[in-house]
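Re: beginner question about structure tokens

> Can someone show what the tokenized structure looks like for a real chain? I only ever see the sequence side.

Sure, here's an example I had lying around. Input first:
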Amino acid sequence: MATAVFPGSFDPVTIGHMDLIKRALAIFDKLVIGVLANSAKNPFFTEEERVYMLKELTKDIPGTEVIQFNGLLVDFVKETKADAVIRGIRNSIDFEYELPLAQANYKLDYKADTIFLATLPEHSYISSSAVRELVRYKGDIKGFVPDVVYQFIVQKFDYMI
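And the corresponding structure tokens:
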């Protein structure tokens, strides 16, 4: 059974993330969604909240597992016995950022080989950071996040548009 990991902070989960999850499952039998505690970011949601949202979003998608992790991605790949890493690429800036990381991960462990999936054009402008900014200024995020995430944001931040 071929397994991939899809790591990210998912703060919050966007419709672009969900599209990548579904597309990765067309390639792999199992997808382990790794929710990373990124110390470089000031998160909207705790790791537990992000794991909860992803579990809700994927509960009816066979072949998915959601796990919170800390540390190196190569260690997470080993722990999950994954065959590859999935990363979404929206633009050349994403690629320039992701390529050296993918190369370093492969150097550390060849099982941490990365497969880049190009984001669909209709999702290319969507990012978690854009969603966070829209929420801060009460912008409309309905077309950016799944309904489960929207409801979570409404409850946590008293957000209504």
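Each token stands for a local structural state, so reading them left to right follows the chain. The longest strand covers residues 30-36.
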